Amino acid sequence: MFPVMDLNLWFYVLQALVLLILAFVSLGVVIAIYSESEATAFLACLVVGLPLLFLSGLLFPVEFMPPLVAVLGLCSPLTQAVISMQATLLYHSSQFASSAVLLLCAAIFTLVAGLSLKK
Known about the structure:
Blueprint lengths: L6 H28 L3 H18 L11 H8 L2 H15 L4 H23 L1
Helix pairs in contact: 1-2, 1-4, 1-5, 4-5
């Protein structure tokens, strides 16, 4: 268990959640820009989102995946958020690397969305 009144802990968990939300919203905007209809965007989100869920380590551990799949899974923003939250809640340590990867993913997706909207 973790101490509920530890504000530092809540800060790191909320930081990971905000960065994850930013990354997924910007990815959703990119998908919406390139989709012709709402139904196409919904299906594209499923095509992108479900593999991210399976690769994140939430359903089965990354250690049991083949090496190439595990590397792909570790590049996912969802995996980095899970790693960050696990480290914060279980070990009471911040994961700067996971936060940096989440921020990088959010920045890349936002940049791609911005450049796509500009065209």
